[in-house]
Specification:
By secondary structure, the protein is of the alpha/beta class. It has 5 helices and 5 strands. A 5-stranded parallel beta sheet has the order 2-1-3-4-5. The protein is globular. The model has no long low-confidence stretch (mean pLDDT 87).
Length: 117
């Protein structure tokens, strides 16, 4: 796995319109942005080239955000990757201790303004 690209972010979300919105917002801020439609594709992208930051949705097909984060935290090569989780299930994330367990950098609750990114 290569070292993190200086300004490369990975956005993983199964909603194509949201991926596009996040991508355009982050591109305007000067980041290189790659997107993936689910956790499995996101994991493949991270293994090809480690991003500076992962922004991932919680609920997705094939591999949800929790499974993706768990796998990343279990791998020494990605255990320190900063991760922002996007979710409409804020209470469940907070009350279950998942955010702490997965060492998430931030949890952003939907709906939110793209400016928060």
């Amino acid at each position: 796995m290569s070292s993190p690209a200086l300004h490369r972010l990975l956005v993983v979300d199964d909603e194509p319109d949201l991926r596009t919105l996040y991508e355009l917002t982050l591109l305007r801020e000067g980041y290189d942005v790659e997107t993936a439609p689910d956790g499995r594709a996101g994991l493949d992208a991270i293994r090809r080239e480690r991003p500076l930051l992962l922004i991932t949705d919680l609920q997705m097909p094939n591999k949800d955000g929790i499974a993706l984060c768990h796998e990343l935290r279990s791998d020494p090569a990605t255990s320190d990757l900063p991760i922002i989780m996007l979710t409409a299930k804020g209470f469940e994330i907070d009350s279950s201790g998942v955010a702490a367990l997965l060492r998430l950098s931030e949890v952003i609750f939907k709906p939110f303004s793209p400016r928060e990114l």
